[in-house]
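hi!! sorry for the late reply, been swamped w classes. u asked for the two structures so here they r. pasted raw, havent cleaned anything up. first the sequence of the first protein and right below it the tokens
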Amino acid sequence: MDALILFRSDMQTYLRAYTFLSQIFDYGNTDFEKRSIFYRALVRLLKFGREREGVDLSEVKLTHHSVRNRGQQNLRLSDEDAPKLDPLTDAGSGQVHEKEKARLSEIIARVNDLFEGELTDNDKLLYVDRVIKEKLLESEILVKQASSNTKEQFAGSPDLVPELVSAAMDALDAHTAMSTQALESKSVQREMVNILLTYSRLYEDLRERASAV
């Protein structure tokens, strides 16, 4: 039995060596490969009853365990005083990129004079730069126009305001106060179009959507 176990171990050693070395250079002799194929198949058959599928632990029970207090230990990283790590500071203080921050600030400054009522700056920003803009990005008419015209030509499109009104109507339920003013005021509509084109990248995003189709 010991001889058989040694024989199988030698074959496994050969297989590991051949698998590794064959990736480095060409043996130039197919006998080595044939032998490795034969050994790999033979090793699977050489089972001598010592292998077990698993150990049955169903009857094993933990009756007790021991916890010992060995006192406090001072872990030294070196013989000298170990350098101290700086504490975590300014958590959550990540900054928006300056260009993006300036763009959002400009939009807020422009929309502050558009809408009245108890509305936060974020309400106004999200309404114009997110809700209305996303609705306009769904317009197939504007997507086609942005893809085939310059920004200056696109700004003169007669479909911009009607599509803006349609977008405001779609958002009416969620943003009643601002949508009502956008629907009733021509000056608000014109200024929203100006904001969307100048600061909200409406034209550029429409062209990107057109190129992705």
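now the second protein. again sequence first, tokens right under
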Amino acid sequence: AGVFCISPQRINMCGQLNLVCFDKTGTLTEDGLDLWGVQRAEDSRFCPPESEVVEERMVSTTFVACMAACHSLTKIEGELSGDPLDLKMFAATGWILEEPTEDETTLHNPLMPTVVRPPKSPKAEANQNQSCEIGIVRQFPFSSALQRMSVVVRRLGEKQMEAFLKGAPEVVASLCKPLTVPQNFSDCLESYTRQGFRVIALAHRQLESKLSWHKVQNLSRDLIETNMNFLGLIIMQNKIKAETAGALRELQRANIRLLMVTGDNMLTAISVAQDCGMIHADERVIIADAVPPKDSNP
């Protein structure tokens, strides 16, 4: 047995390491996310958790419409492409994404939007007046600094446009009308993050009827992402890689300090660290908030 290395000097450098930093998602955990379930909010209260959103009773809900429309997915050579979380979320709805063809945009209507719609069913065909087809009029991409993204949409046959918002639960809740956020929001969120789940919140609001397509294109996202109605939570599961715990044990036996660097929820990160052995269940964890220095003062 031996060590094969294309740059032998790296072996000597490794002998001097005393600290290794790991990203969480895709390094300690699997690359993909699985939808564990959703928890909708109605009348300022959380409904019981639901594992499926493709059921007939869910198709016409605003919650599922938000899941299907609030993303940055596109089609490349006929295949959906985009953020893995968006792909999982959209796939869970069972909806279909249709983008205008090159001929449609150049010859007919350059403003033709991307459209999402649920798959056709006998019940939907029998009542064509209640279409769930949604056109995405404008998109505000996800910003890591803002921890959210949003879209402006128009339903088929409707004149008034709507806004859908998706992002970090605390951020989304802060942009919603307080009366629409369940009183046990913080407790519910903490219960999921302590179990290591990744949680995304959704929100929605009707836009002013006077807003036209052209006006929407010139609005800042701050004017759209405000006074929202809280819709609920999407709970995603990110499993730890099978080899993670063993690799970390080897490093710990070599007296190498281990750190996790992540932008995820703090309690989710702690749960993952405990599950993979980076910290032990009986160890004390201190959570601290750091702020940048002002005027050269620490």
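hope this helps!! also noticed smth abt the second:
The chain has a mean pLDDT of 83.
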